[in-house]
Each structure stands twice: as structure tokens, then as C-alpha cells.
Amino acid sequence: MNDKGDTEVQKQVRAELESQLDTLDANVTARLSAARHRALDQLQVKPRWQPVIGWAVAATLVVAVSLWWQQAPMSSGMSADDFELLVSGDGIELYEDLEFYDWLSSENDAG
Amino acid sequence: MTDDADTARQLNTFLAQVERRAFRIAEIATRNPDAALDIVQDAMLKLVQKYARRQPDEWPPLFYRILNNRINDWHRRGKVSRGWLSWWGDWKNRDDEGELTEPEFAGNEADDPMHLLAQSDAMRDFVSVLGELPQRQQQAFMLRIWEGLDVAQTAFAMGCSQGSVKTHLSRATARLRGHLERHR
């Protein structure tokens, strides 16, 4: 096998392939062009939204954490009255039955 | 914004340059224009989705690697479905006792004289011979000689070593040369 002969064959096949490109069906070229534009549409849509969504999620997290941070000490902080109520067993029972006493007082008022 | 517009313009130019050749490569490999169009469309979409931000000089080997993978997938799917069809046909053509029966007449294209004549005409055509080459030889020839990728880029696109590219190309060229000499 000689290199010159190989190059000649390769040139001939390439020329044949190139000449066939010019006679490609118009329907095929139109479909290729449409496919190209559909592919390029992906480029314009996708990357623009990704950072926006990322920043929105990050900002929401920051706000949620800071709100929780502000409210957490208030909910866990206990006043002296609350503490007294907790250590007295009667107080707890009173608060548990508050609805009952409310109903009882309304019955007495009616009677 | 400007970067996006530049990338879109460069990608459009690149894809417009390669789309017709990519279609012919896929069509010669599959002998099915509709499948070839689907394959090229998939390759374009994947390039844009995954590799748009790469340097433009990296696009050709990436694009042809995707294209080759899609063509290989198409052949693999064909083998699987042909396997099932042959199993189904074989099973269907057995009688109750499991013996093979005479298959129904299906208008075999290979026996049609007009088809045989057209096929012999086509055999004189280089491109038909190219379509009959083993897939790897065909890919090496198309990418190196027609698309003009260098050996390293072709090896990347085909997912093989540079030595394999040279071997496949040499065998493809020998087959084409033999064909040319027979028809001189």
C-alpha cells in the first residue's frame, strides 16, 4: 500500500461526499435548521434562571434562620410567674381544666 | 448577557457548518434519514446543554463524540430489537409440536431483480462502499478525512486510542482503494 495512492482515494471520496452535500433535500436542510434553533433555545432559557433560583433559595434560608434566631430566646425564656405556676401542682390542674371552670361559671350565671 | 449572545452566535455558526455533514455521517451509518435527523438533533441539544460554555475549539471533537455515541446507541437498540423480533418470528413459525413451519411470504426485497440492479449500481458508488464498512472504520474515515479532525481529536470523538484510529483509517482506505481498482 502506498501513501500517495491512499491520499488519492481519500481525496476522491471526500470530493464525492462534498458534492452530495450540495444536493441534500430541501426538507432535510429545513429540518436541520429547525433542530439547530431548538437546540440554541436551550442556551437562552436555562442558564439565566439557574442563578436566580439559587439566590432566591439562599435569601429565603437567610431570612428564615434570622427570624428563628430572634424568636427562639423569647419562647425559651421563662418569667417568674410561669415558673411559679409550673412548680405548683394545683396551678397546672387549674389550667388544664380551664374550659370546665369557664362552663361552670356560665351555668352559675344562668342559674 | 453579551457573553450569552456571543456564545449563541458562535454555536449557531459552528452547528450550521457541521449539521449537513453530521446528517450525512449519521445517514450513511444508519441508512435511515429519519433516524439520522433524530441523531443529529440529539447531538446538537446535548452539545448546547452540556458544553456551550467550553471553548469553541473544543466543540468539534465533543460534538462528534456525542454524534458517534448516538449512532452506536442506535445500532445497539437495533440489535436488541432485531434479536427480539427474530426470537418472536422463530417462536411464531413453530407448530403445536414445536417444529419449524414454512414462513409466510413477506415479499423479500433481496430477491427483487430491480432491487438487485439498484444495489449493483450503488456498489459502484464510493459512498455506498463507505456505508458498508465496519462502523469503526467508517467513523475513523469520516472524522479524519471528511471532517478534518486530527488524530487526537478523532481518538477522543471515537473513545479509542490514536493507534486504533490509524489502524481503522488504514483499513477503511484499503477497502475503498480495492473497490476503486476493481471498477476501473
Describe this structure in words.
The complex is a heterodimer of chains A (111) and B (184). By secondary structure, chain A is mainly α. Helix content of chain A is 90%, strand content 0%. The longest helix of chain A has 51 residues, at 26-76. With 184 residues, chain B is mainly α. Helices cover 77% and strands 0% of the residues of chain B. Chain B contains 8 helices and no strands. Chain B has helices at residues 2-30, 33-51, 59-92, 113-123, 126-132, 135-146, 151-158, 162-182. In chain B, helix 1 runs antiparallel to helix 2 (33-51) and helix 6 (135-146) crosses helix 8 (162-182). Chain B is globular, with a radius of gyration of 21 Å. Mean pLDDT of chain B is 80; it is low at 91-113 and 115-120. The A-B interface holds A 1, 5-6, 9-10, 12-14, 16-18, 20-21, 24, 28-29, 31-33, 35-36, 38-40, 42-44, 46-48 and B 4, 7-8, 11-12, 15-16, 19-21, 23-24, 33, 37, 40-41, 44-45, 47-49, 52, 125-127, 130, 141, 145-146, 170, 173-174, 176-177, 180.
Could you give a short description of this structure?
Helices cover 90% and strands 0% of the residues of chain A. Chain A has helices at 3-22, 26-76, 80-87, 89-96, 98-110. Chain A is rod-shaped, with a radius of gyration of 41 Å.
Order of helices and strands of chain A: HHHHH
| H-E order of chain B | HHHHHHHH
Give the overall silhouette of chain B.
globular
* Rg result of chain B: 21 Å
Keywords:
heterodimer; A: 111 residues; mainly alpha; 5 helices; B: 184 residues; 8 helices; globular
